[in-house]
Write a structure and sequence with these properties.
This is ATP-dependent DNA helicase. Its EC number is 5.6.2.3. GO terms for molecular function: 5'-3' DNA helicase activity; ATP binding; hydrolase activity. Its cofactor is Mg(2+). It is a single chain. About 30% of the residues lie in helices and about 15% in strands. The protein is of the alpha/beta class. The protein has a single domain, classed as Rossmann fold (3-Layer(aba) Sandwich). α1 runs parallel beside α2.
Length: about 210
């Protein structure tokens, strides 16, 4: 199952980040959560949206878990950490792996209490990482609402982001086809995501504003 990233629904063709924020806020406020993928190349405003979403949700006294595929990317997020650290994803990931956290552990309690999980630069991670999160959420989130068992990430609002034209997962001794298969773009769970796209280069847009309008 693969997504057509260039032909998806264009939520912000005019850099209307408010559309992304509104969609996510609606999901956070619901009992069923939601699964989103924010697709955009560099300088389209993804980091700004992560910070805005985090601030908006936390201002209501709710918990947001900000993560990224690497420590460098995580530094750009408020309270950001690597996805492996935040969600206890195994370093040596396998197809049938699960998260290395106990259902009744403090970390699992934190995940259950969160209303939003953000993961930036998701295309750099192996698809098995996200499938492990989805698989383990069935056990972790069962305390919240057993009826969410068949919903992606079991009713948690999860927003992934990144650009598939950048670095894909690193796979040892892999062919080009193997690397593509390792991408989240080849995962069945992505078929359940709502794709939100950023298409405007905010840096160029800002530089093109006439002086009298600044």
């Amino acid at each position: 199952m693969q997504r057509d990233w260039e032909g998806g629904r264009d939520i912000s063709r005019d850099a209307k980040e408010a559309g992304v924020q509104k969609a996510t806020a609606k999901s956070v406020g619901s009992d069923n959560g939601g699964f989103f993928f924010l697709y955009g190349y560099g300088v389209t405003g993804k980091t700004f949206i992560w910070k805005t979403l985090s601030t908006a949700v936390r201002s209501k006294g709710l918990i947001v878990l900000n993560a990224a595929s690497s420590g460098i990317a995580a530094l750009l997020l408020p309270g950001g950490r690597t996805a492996h650290s935040t969600l206890a994803i195994p370093i040596e990931i396998k197809e049938a792996s699960s998260l290395t956290m106990e259902k009744d552990s403090p970390r699992a309690d934190l995940v259950r209490a969160a209303k939003l999980i953000i993961c930036d630069e998701a295309p750099m991670m192996h698809q098995w990482c996200f499938e492990a999160v989805d698989r383990s959420m069935c056990d972790i989130m069962s305390k919240n609402d057993p009826l969410n068992e068949f919903i992606p990430f079991r009713g948690m609002t999860v927003v992934l982001g990144g650009d598939f034209r950048q670095i894909l997962p690193v796979v040892r001794k892999a062919t080009r086809h193997d690397i593509f298969d390792a991408s989240i773009n080849s995962s069945k769970i992505l078929a359940y995501s709502n794709v939100l796209r950023l298409t405007v280069n905010m840096r160029l847009s800002a530089s093109s504003v006439p002086v009298e309008q600044e």
